[in-house]
Amino acid sequence: MRRLLFLAILPAVASATAITSVDNLGSLGSGESVAYGINVSGLAVGWSTNSDGITNAFGANGPGSLFDFSALASGAESYAYGVNSAGAVAGVFYENGESHGAIWTAGGGMADLGPGSIATTINDSGVAAGGNGQAFIYANGEIRQLGTLAGGNWSAAYAVNEGGDVVGYGNTGSGAFRGFYWTGTTLISIGTLGGDNSYAMDINDSGQIVGDASTSSGYLHAFSTTGGAMQDLGTLGGTSSFAYGVNNSGLVVGYSTTSDGGTHAFLYENGEMVDLNSLLPDGSGWVLLQAYGINDQNQIVGTGLWNGEERAFRVNLDTGSPVPEPGVCILVACGGVLLSLGSWLRRRSEPAANQEEFPPK
User: Fold this and answer.
1) How far apart, in whole angstroms, are the C-alpha atoms of residue 280 and residue 27?
2) What is the secondary structure of 222-282 as a DSSP string?
3) How far apart are CA 186 and CA 180, in angstroms?
4) CB within 8 Å of 282: residues ≥ 6 apart
5) Phi and psi, residue 267, nearest 5°
6) Which of 5, 58, 149, 325 is the most exposed place for a label (fewest CB within 10 A)?
7) What's the pLDDT tens digit per position in 197-256?
């Protein structure tokens, strides 16, 4: 962050969010890695491809500190999606090509949730959730099926808060997909933004749900619920956006297409979707492509390009420091220096109206 010394530029300075640092979490050998979940202590989990071309789940406490879960997973591939405050990790491993949901404990143990399953999340009370054809929760060594939406035959859960509320999505009798929440009895559809489909991806302890839903135009937009109402969070200038994480302060993260067809990670706060790249210091070497998780310390994890290589990142936010507002360019008379936040572009095709495979691989 630059220290601003001239009274002439003070009117352009406001209290806004800044990125204090971006941690490069490294890889397992190929340079390709994705961080998906993060706990209150900053432990990030995700997956990376090793030098043999095999994708393995990892954990990371900081820059370049990846540790491989392959010794804990009996299959050829593994992916980690969620981690709680005790360091227990929810994910999946593949054995003979079939998925097995897994809960890896900090002590090195693993619970196999059975063939055809996947574990996507785990809360601080140790309650995990996922899917095995139907959404389920896993607690005290037992799986409880949550059922399906009316007329549907498939569902999966993707988040569970500390109150035990679960969100996810499933199909309906019409063939559409609808996000749902479950508060102990039945799956309740959360609706859409005017189109046919919706996908609920996270819920905080206040019951705020985030995900994405189709609009009347058919494109998917990130949404957040406030008082039960679904709010369209918009895009970063492109056609589609996807919300994946929300913390207990209500900060939302995800990614959006941009006006040039690329994808950038976003932070949604104070009623505005902000491109995380606009908060980076000049010369960082990063293009932040997709954000998947955020903790209550305002640390964000995802994947991006670091000097052209795809790497998992952990962003550390400062949400109260005085910095130039995004998009404002300030010309300082002394020296004629133009201060601006860096911006990077990456072209990538994005499905216009179809939800990507989730969990992403």
Assistant:
1) 22
2) EEEEETTEEEE---BEEEEEEEEEE-TT--EEEEEEETTSBEEEEEEETTEEEEGGGGSPT
3) 9
4) 340, 341, 342
5) -120, 130
6) 5
7) 999 999 999 999 999 999 999 999 999 998 889 999 999 999 999 999 999 999 999 999
Q: Which long-range contacts (CB under 8 A, 24 or more apart) does 331-334 make?
A: 332/6, 332/8, 332/9, 333/6, 333/8, 334/6
- Other CB atoms within a 10 A radius of the CB of residue 205 amount to 14
Backbone angles phi, psi at 310, to 5 degrees: -75, 120
Q: Which tokens sit at 79?
A: 């992916």
Q: Structure tokens of 58?
A: 């990892």
Indicate the pTM of the whole model: 0.85
pLDDT at 16: 57
Residue 190: partners with Cβ closer than 8 Å, 6 or more residues away: 167, 178, 179, 180, 181, 198, 200, 209, 225, 230
User: Is residue 7 helix, strand or coil?
Assistant: helix
On the question of a cis peptide bond just before residue 11, with omega within 30 degrees of 0, the verdict is no
SS3 (DSSP) at 9: helix
- Tokens encoding 219: 């494109």
d(CA 307, CA 20): 19
Paired tokens of 270: 């104070």
pLDDT, residue 329, reads 31
Retrieve residue 36's tokens: 């998906």
Closest CA to 312 of 54, 105, 53, 36: 36
Joined tokens for residue 172? 């309906």
Q: Which residues contact 234 (CB under 8 A, 6 or more apart)?
A: 221, 222, 241, 273
